[in-house]
Design brief:
2 domains, binds magnesium ion, five-stranded parallel β-sheet, single chain, Spore Coat Polysaccharide Biosynthesis Protein SpsA, Chain A, elongated, alpha/beta, binds guanosine-5'-diphosphate-alpha-D-mannose, UDP N-Acetylglucosamine Acyltransferase, domain 1
Length: 345
């Protein structure tokens, strides 16, 4: 599992917490990933870490998640997605033709991993990619295929994508293909490894399944993914409670007149006054005043939202203090050397 990126699109939250460890529906996002893999029979996960690597070992101390063995392999310097796979391969125990499953660490997917594996094994492909259809392929890897489901091209983040079919970030490699990725320099699996393999005539197969699928890498998709987990639009056995309108963790204090809806989350130690919280994620120890209205917001650890503020699609950094009566949308707010800094999209 690739978890070493900087999560720049989720700053300021990722300045302190790496994206895969941010709280999503009440637990670090990776807990949902691990639970899903455990549920389909995975027993060993190698985490390819780089950015803030030590925090992963702290959060999943002991290297065990409910019986799944976790192994942490850290790059000295960020090696890119391909370099991370090559580096983590040192911990693989598979034979040359055995399948290795690789995941982007920020994707919430309901696709059938067993079916993807079956396609990989019956087609005999070197690599099998899970693909989904999206409305706008520009921020993804666009992956056209032929009538037999063979991948014909891999076009990462093109301004004019040739298809709506994209790389969903779950690959099955033959182990020996991973051994061909250089380890001495950064390599992008999307921009270098896949295009080079195709150029050399290698068989890359598509597994197309448009089940629930979301990349949680932006503020909008992060609130969406968290909300979908809370309401049960996508099931997760790591959800700490029953699906419903909102998830309030133990140790949170919520005013009886507060309105929490559309899959909002309130973290432990948080205080919520008489506020309306709509499809938003309130991290642990944050405080939300009375008369506040939050729509599609992410409120960082220990942040304080002053009374009567109206915030829509805002990301509030850890410990930021928002004065009363602020009316803002599409902004990022964080505390820089004691000064509240606001940037608009
Ligand atoms: N270890 C390590 N080292 N991990 C990395 C590095 C690195 O240098 N760079 C990125 N990662 C990890 C990230 O943490 C993330 O889990 C994953 O690799 C993908 O990086 P993102 O930054 O999330 O990429 P993206 O969302 O822009 O695009 C990727 O995902 C799309 C689907 O969600 C690409 O794979 C696209 O082709 C794909 O469509
Ligand atoms: Mg991503």
């Amino acid at each position: 599992m690739l978890v070493g990126g900087q999560g720049t699109r989720l700053r300021p939250l990722t300045l302190t917490t790496p994206k895969p460890l941010l709280p999503v529906a009440g637990v670090p996002f990776l807990a949902h990933q691990f639970a899903r893999l455990r549920d389909v029979g995975v027993t060993r996960i190698i985490l390819a870490t780089s950015y803030r690597a030590d925090l992963f070992e702290e959060v999943f101390a002991g290297g065990d998640f409910d019986g799944v063995e976790l192994i942490f392999v850290t790059e000295a310097e960020p090696m890119g997605t391909g370099g991370a796979i090559a580096n983590a391969a040192a911990a693989l125990e598979s034979g040359p033709d055995d399948p290795v499953i690789v995941f982007n660490g920020d994707v919430l997917s309901g696709h059938d991993l067993g079916a993807q594996l079956a396609v990989h094994l019956t087609s005999g492909a070197e690599v099998t990619l899970h693909l989904v259809e999206v409305d706008d392929a520009r921020r993804f890897g666009c992956v056209p295929t032929d009538s037999s489901g063979r991948v014909t091209d891999f076009l990462e983040k093109m301004p004019n994508p040739v298809a709506n079919q994209i790389n969903a970030g779950c690959y099955i490699f033959k182990t020996r293909v991973i051994s061909t990725i250089p380890t001495a320099r950064p390599v992008s699996v999307e921009r270098e490894t896949f295009p080079n393999l195709l150029q050399a005539g290698a068989h890359i197969q598509a597994y197309v399944e448009t089940a629930y699928w979301l990349d949680l890498g932006t503020p909008a998709t992060y609130v969406q993914g968290s909300s979908d987990l809370v309401t049960g639009a996508i099931a997760s056995t790591a959800l700490p409670g029953a699906p419903g309108q909102a998830l309030v963790l133990d140790g949170a204090q919520v005013s009886s007149s507060a309105q929490l809806v559309d899959g909002s989350v309130v973290g432990t130690g948080a205080h919520i006054g008489d506020a309306a919280i709509i499809r938003s994620v309130i991290f642990d120890d944050a405080q939300v005043g009375s008369g506040v209205r939050l729509v599609d917001c992410l409120v960082g650890f220990g942040a304080v939202i002053g009374d009567s503020s109206q915030l829509e699609r805002c990301v509030i950094g850890d410990g930021a203090v928002i004065p009363a009566g602020q009316v803002l949308s599409d902004s990022r707010l964080w505390n820089q050397d004691g000064v509240l800094t606001i940037t608009s999209e």
